[in-house]
User: Fold these one by one.
Assistant:
Number 1:
Amino acid sequence: MEELSYYEILEVSRDADKETIKKAYRKMAKVYHPDKNPGDNEAEHKFKLVNEAYQCLSDDKQRSIYDRYGKEGLQGMGGGRGRSGGMGGFEDLGSIFEEMFSGFGGSSSRRRRNPADIDKYPLDMNIEMYLSFHEAVFGCEKEVEFSYKKACKSCNGTGAKDGKLATCKQCGGQGQIFMKQGFMTFSQTCPVCHGSGSAAADKCGTCHGDGFSEVREKVTVKIPKGIDSGNRLRVSGKGNIGKKGMRGDLYITFTVRPDKHFVRDGNNVYIEIPVFFTQAVMGDTLTIPSLTGELELKLDVGTRDKQHYTFRNEGIEDVHGHGKGDLIAQINITYPRKLNDEQRELLRKLESSFGLEESKPHESILDSAIEKMKSWFK
């Protein structure tokens, strides 16, 4: 695309008027805008070229020089990336961006709400709660104490003395500020007035300009069975209170503390069962703990280390009511750390009772490999 002329980039003729150029720019900028093409480097590059072409062709002086001398003629003016005489075309570009961003979920100044109606904080709020493994698995009731925001009556939630607002000095009442970076212009919500276009002339003495006070409250919450870390629970009508008395919702985000014995994986639960090597060899029957009591685990003869035994529907109830998970018992075979003479002798007798082929499998399997290896060095 770099080899194309500015007219070809915007797909307009060389005699196109300003309105045609603006429409072409708006159309192509929306197509290649980074918000619509996250992570697409090619789209980002094309978006920059489209902006560069529009800034040149929308300015009569730059367009005239470009038509006669091409990009080289614009070098003294910043290579098509700048404007002579203040903001120039950036004001026009800024208005187009404002219109574009409204389509991406932003707000146009023509549709801006009355500043007196805009709350200085979101009505919905979130707090975090920690639960034990037992509380999360079986559910519980917990009393929660939290702080919520309530609009200041003295200033009607504006943060201004007697509720009197003035035009925001930061954005000049636009509700947005525009920033230039190279040949691109970006808009963002004004950080001072938060998009309202108005700010306090003098701070309210009651709330010190915050526009709200904080109130402590307690509420008892019923936590369902099977809640997990990252899950959220909504408590209706317990959020912040706005200027018009509307109250948002309280959201509780949970973190479940780990258990000493049980390890959770979704709705499944794992537990490690230590087994002495003789129990694994003989296939003993063990009594193991579960979430609801005791279970009988019959080991296979010759059970392997890390072998799993699954107990269906002995896991955690799904928080949405979609059945239960499983309990998985993982075997951890243990061996004696020391042997006395009597134990050593008994083990030798046991070993010999299996016969040479079974008790010493490495000899029958590896002898041929050893002989082959020796032949390599003859």
Number 2:
Amino acid sequence: MRKIEELKFDNTYRKLPEEFYHLVKPTPLKNPHLVCFNSDAGSLIDLDPNEAKKPDFIEYFSGNKLIPGSDPLAMYYTGHQFGVYNPDIGDGRAILLGEVRNSVDEKWDIHLKGSGRTRYSRIFDGRAVLRSTIREYLCSEAIHALGIPTTRALCIIGSDEKVERETTETGAMMLRMAETHVRFGSFEAFHYTDRPHYVKLLTDYVIEQNFPALFKEENKYYMLLEEAVNRTAKLIAKWQSVGFTHGVMNTDNMSISGITIDYGPYGFMEEYEPEYTPNHSDHFGRYSFQNQPAIALWNLNKLAQALGSIIPRERAQDALEGFKNIYSQCFVELMSKKLGFKTARAEDVGLIKRLLDIMVTEKVDYTIFFRKLSNLISDNADLNHDAVCMFEDKSGIEDWAASYKRRLRAENSDDIERKRGMNLVNPKYILRNYLAENAIRKAVNEADYSEINLLHKILQDPFSEQSEFEEYAGPSPDWGRNLAISCSS
């Protein structure tokens, strides 16, 4: 394990032409203090967890001191926001401190969010607020524990600094990590300014750094797009399977490596509602739960257009046409596992659809239902079961349950083995927005960060019973049900 000063930096992005970034140092926070630290994320860069106890840790991650070997810069990108191209984006409140290579030669971008103004800040102040950093810290780690690709969160640094949003809030910084922070919008930036040589240069860079197996391939550019399609399709299928709604799937919030990035007005769907939209700014539901697969494909089309100077449109279309099959196959496989099937069968599609149709009519809690379903006994004619009893109108769900039991018996399902398998894929604990809100209120109003650490602990092990935390597994109270979240951070 290493001290902060011993981290092994390798700043490859800095070697690209200056048009790709703005060299800028973080703006120090006033009176910084440590809010929370994630030793699991720290281990990814070989960081000794004892470093978080030292005063210098706060200095380094509040912008007051520069980590030796780092070379901070703000990345340039543009993107389509709510379907409209915006040429004025870029890292307006975040700075890439550099890239750290660990002992097994994995490269992690070290990205400081809330680090002050950059060339791309425009009218914004370049700060993040404590509220938004807590939400991103908790959700990125919760998503990771669910087995979904994502950025990781190392720490949050709080301060006394006041930041104006809808109201006056407290400024903070969060250190997040990813294999890359290159986005679909990174390619769009050079495509829409008619700089195809930079599109090619960026593509070569991404392949060399993140997809080295493609580097010597004759069709490497097409294969990169194909890989982006594949990874994105599987990512969205995983989101859908756990009821996660990102909330703002602009092309600048889509990672070229197919990971979840830029947590803002997200939400885990509670009552099953395909039109669920956690972002209070999304008045027309563009980024609703049900629209995520179609929006992902729309965004991939914009990526393909941005790569048009190096991939012929007809060839790119071949890659894009694979999205629906990849997504559908992955989604059905995931849902089949949620239902406890040993293998996915063609007939499962109809069974899954019937169930979801019933759930949307009854507004049943998505996470709780699937967790309870594991207790159903397949060879028992009695349908008075916990999961079935969640429905007011029993006729539809009882008919479905009878079909479900027949499907289980057809593959000689063992109830004990099935329950064990279902509980490995159906989480008991998710980050319901009211839980995050409780942690935020304690932190903001009382400077009490204990709830952040407790939630982090619970959400690190979402599939286990953790009976001592049973209250965190229930439905949201009335005040916290389907909270609408602001984009503002």
